[in-house]
């Protein structure tokens, strides 16, 4: 019997439902992947920003991981918000026991501009977790923090993707250009080839949770056995539809629409 596609997200929460664990689980469900979650921080946030944060004690993060890992098999997992070195350490120790695909979304700052990880976490993220990853998905500001280089152009993005693989040890890097002016272009470097994924830039302020939703969609497609470049292309189609049809709700940057892809899917 074929295994049931299953995926795990290890991340922070968003009670307004647009980002973090909530976005990840909606995306897994939408893509017919059994979704599981380990919560690292409870974040009081909405479309306008972050109001408060409570970090889950490290022993409880470890216990959540043990509970899932000892019971249900999964083909892929992702990490999102890992707020400090203690949390990163707890996660690193448990995931080093896993032999499945690891997608790391190096979450640092929200769309609204709030910082989600401490300054002293950045080196840990780059030096300990990143080399464990099958794929890391930084946006341009995150790629700048990882590489220490200024990234303004698509050439800079491609250079950063190569550097993240060859110098910092991820198996593959997807540098996202949601922050570029006229084109939404992302570059995937898999250690051998550069792949380009491009769409027109959609003029909307509703981009709360785009990074979370995109990396969750990649994780779901990988759990189903897609190749890396197919998983990214399928996820790019998914996130583009979700942004195009995003919800104009809330007083700030509205959330993406995870069921938008249904209308566009041809099968
Ligand atoms: N306005 C947009 N129109 C079309 N695609 C977009 C737009 N904004 C982002 N994207 C795409 O959405 C995906 C998520 O990218 P993005 O770089 O925005 O993630 P992020 O920066 O982690 O999230 P955020 O921008 O919310 O911080 C990428 O494929 C990116 O190209
Ligand atoms: C718990 C949590 N994790 C990540 C993000 C980033 O969201 P975005 O995808 O908009 O950068 C967020 N706002 N909250």
Automatic annotation (TrEMBL):
InterPro entries: HMP/HMP-P_kinase_dom, PM/HMP-P_kinase-1, Ribokinase-like. Pfam families: Phos_pyr_kin. One of its GO terms (biological process) is thiamine biosynthetic process. Keywords: ATP-binding, Kinase, Nucleotide-binding, Thiamine biosynthesis, Transferase. Its EC number is 2.7.1.49, 2.7.4.7. Pathway: Cofactor biosynthesis; thiamine diphosphate biosynthesis; 4-amino-2-methyl-5-diphosphomethylpyrimidine from 5-amino-1-(5-phospho-D-ribosyl)imidazole: step 3/3; Cofactor biosynthesis; thiamine diphosphate biosynthesis; 4-amino-2-methyl-5-diphosphomethylpyrimidine from 5-amino-1-(5-phospho-D-ribosyl)imidazole: step 2/3. Residues 14-257 form the Pyridoxamine kinase/Phosphomethylpyrimidine kinase domain. One of its GO terms (cellular component) is cytosol. CDD domains: HMPP_kinase (cd01169). GO terms for molecular function: ATP binding; hydroxymethylpyrimidine kinase activity; phosphomethylpyrimidine kinase activity. It catalyses: 4-amino-2-methyl-5-(phosphooxymethyl)pyrimidine + ATP = 4-amino-2-methyl-5-(diphosphooxymethyl)pyrimidine + ADP; 4-amino-5-hydroxymethyl-2-methylpyrimidine + ATP = 4-amino-2-methyl-5-(phosphooxymethyl)pyrimidine + ADP + H(+). It comes from the Bacteria. Belongs to the ThiD family. PANTHER family: HYDROXYMETHYLPYRIMIDINE_PHOSPHOMETHYLPYRIMIDINE KINASE THI20-RELATED, PHOSPHOMETHYLPYRIMIDINE KINASE. This is Hydroxymethylpyrimidine/phosphomethylpyrimidine kinase. It comes from Lentibacillus halodurans.
């Amino acid at each position: 019997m074929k295994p049931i596609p299953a995926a795990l997200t290890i991340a922070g929460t968003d009670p307004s439902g647009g980002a973090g664990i909530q976005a990840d689980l909606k995306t897994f469900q939408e893509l017919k992947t059994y979704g599981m979650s380990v919560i690292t921080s409870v974040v009081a946030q909405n479309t306008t920003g972050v109001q408060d944060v409570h970090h889950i004690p490290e022993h409880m993060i470890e216990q959540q991981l043990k509970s899932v890992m000892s019971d249900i098999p999964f083909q892929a997992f992702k990490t999102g918000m890992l707020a400090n070195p203690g949390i990163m350490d707890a996660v690193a120790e448990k995931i080093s026991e896993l032999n499945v695909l690891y997608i790391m979304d190096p979450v640092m700052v929200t769309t609204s501009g709030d910082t989600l990880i401490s300054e002293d976490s950045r080196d840990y993220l780059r030096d300990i977790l990143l080399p464990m990853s099958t794929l890391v998905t930084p946006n341009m500001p995150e790629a700048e923090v990882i590489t220490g280089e200024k990234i303004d152009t698509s050439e800079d993005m491609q250079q950063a993707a190569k550097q993240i693989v060859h110098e910092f040890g991820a198996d593959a890097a997807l540098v996202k250009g949601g922050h570029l002016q006229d084109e939404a272009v992302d570059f995937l470097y898999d250690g051998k080839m550069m792949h380009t994924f491009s769409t027109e830039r959609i003029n909307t302020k509703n981009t709360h949770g785009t990074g979370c939703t995109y990396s969750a969609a990649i994780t779901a497609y990988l759990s189903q056995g897609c190749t890396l470049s197919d998983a990214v292309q399928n996820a790019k189609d998914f996130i583009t539809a979700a942004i195009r049809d995003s919800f104009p709700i809330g007083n700030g940057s509205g959330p993406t629409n995870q069921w938008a892809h249904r209308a566009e899917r041809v099968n």
